[in-house]
Specification:
This protein has four helices and 28 strands. With about 425 residues, the protein is mainly beta. Strands 14, 15, 16, 17, 19, 24, 25, 26 and 28 form a nine-stranded antiparallel sheet that branches.
């Protein structure tokens, strides 16, 4: 898929939003659990296999129309779009949800003004874009049509560009079908067919784009229909707040632009931790160690922590909840990711680890890039999400209270990880 096409969609989506956002909460002050670089313990396997989490139940559809094709010729050498089993993606905070093939990768470009997410299939020849913005007042169908036409016109200089007239939909939305000749990563040229939609639900404007190779549309139509008709938006969820705190109520946020939270900064023979350029970088220098850090905060039981994490080398970098010292040992839950698109979870009871989720490959992880992860614990239910999609959940009652923070682990080699935009909710 040409990068220019992706850039056009995201850039234009970001221009559609109205103002939004909220104030940052004030930090709490409480004793800090000082980290130490600790040798990795012997790991106990999980007692029994844990079932794969079930997808979220399919929501009622808000979109009635089905895509249609313009027709035309394309290069048959283009790789076939790969569609795996469907799983339900829910945007942080619950703003919207949609069924997406589990083997497609996502990129969240949301900010305080717009929620914008893009998905690409493994061949990078098909994509879906959703952008949700806020609008004060109700737009007429003609106004929605004009807004969608303005968006489509940003691609009119692409080769062989063609667009149908807008179609008014029975549910009040508008559809425009358009196409142009695109150049794939392999160098093959093909007609890209885009079905674009715009809807208003109370104060939320949703724009959806489904782009696939024209010659493959008939084979993909059933899946596209299922995805489109699974889309649902919750107008009660505010923009900005939902995107910034990942659905964590009353979250404290740390962007590492200042010393908020009292995060440890040190440089020893074993470890280094420092703030610079608005990120927090942690390095483990000695082999087979792990390192846990948390901000100034009170002990709590109902917790969530989200962070943008970029590990390097063979690092396992992640987050922890219910971290608490018992004598000279620690109890906590942790989930991690690595640079090879794998994740895992474990529980530590008096520094004895029990695996909850073995190292597992995830299509949600973007290899070699920062990923947004979130770990929550409510009662006995532990849940781990990657880039907005829940990938693991389990009931466990081994650890009842503590603090939330960040985690880094290595094996033989020195490793580092970059952490940013940390959000912690605790009560």
């Amino acid at each position: 898929m040409p990068r220019r096409f992706l850039a056009i969609l995201i850039f234009t989506a970001l221009l559609l939003s109205a103002c939004g956002g909220g104030a940052k909460p004030e930090p709490t002050t409480a004793p800090l659990e000082r980290p130490t670089s600790t040798p990795r313990p012997t790991v106990t396997p999980k007692p029994e296999p844990t079932a794969e989490p079930e997808p979220t139940a399919e929501p009622d559809a808000t979109a009635e129309p089905t895509p249609k094709t313009l027709g035309g010729n394309t290069d048959s050498s283009l790789s076939s779009v790969e569609v795996g089993n469907f799983t339900t993606y829910t945007h942080p905070g619950g703003l919207f949800s949609i069924k997406i093939p589990e083997n497609w990768t996502s990129e969240d470009n949301s900010n305080e003004l717009v929620a914008a997410v893009t998905w690409l299939d493994p061949t990078r020849n098909a994509l879906i874009v959703i952008a949700v913005s806020e609008e004060q007042g109700t737009l007429s169908q003609a106004e929605l049509s004009k807004r969608l036409q303005d968006f489509v016109s940003t691609s009119q200089d692409e080769p062989d560009f063609s667009a149908d007239e807008p179609t008014n939909l029975e549910n009040g939305g508008v559809q425009i079908i358009w196409s142009y000749t695109a150049t794939a990563d392999t160098g093959a040229t093909a007609k890209l067919l885009v079905n674009s939609f715009i809807y208003q639900n109370d104060n939320k404007i949703s724009m959806l784009m489904f782009g696939v190779p024209d010659t493959q549309f008939n084979d993909l139509k059933g899946g596209l229909d299922e995805m489109l008709n699974s889309y649902i938006v919750d107008p009660s969820v505010a923009l900005g707040v939902a995107a910034s705190d990942d659905g964590l109520p009353d979250a404290e946020r740390y962007d590492f632009s200042d010393d908020k939270g009292g995060w440890v900064e040190e440089d020893t023979d074993g470890v280094a931790a420092s703030r610079s350029d608005g990120v927090y970088t942690v390095t483990i220098k000695a082999p087979n160690q792990y390192y846990i850090l948390n901000p100034d905060m009170d002990i709590g039981s109902e917790q969530g922590v989200a962070a943008t994490v970029e590990p390097s080398g063979d690092a396992r970098a992640g987050v922890v909840v219910r971290l608490k010292k018992t004598g000279d040992t620690r109890n906590y839950y942790s989930c991690w990711i690595n640079a090879n698109s794998r994740y895992g979870c474990f529980v530590s009871v008096k520094d004895e680890w029990t695996i909850l989720q073995d190292s597992t490959k995830s299509a949600e992880l973007k290899s070699g890039e920062p990923n947004r992860i979130k770990l929550t614990i409510n009662g006995t239910t532990l849940s781990f999400s990657i880039n907005g999609t829940e990938v693991y959940t389990i009931d466990d009652d081994n650890v009842t209270e503590g603090r939330a923070g960040l985690y880094l682990e290595n094996f033989e080699d020195e490793v580092s990880a970059i952490f940013d935009d940390v959000a912690i909710s605790s009560k």
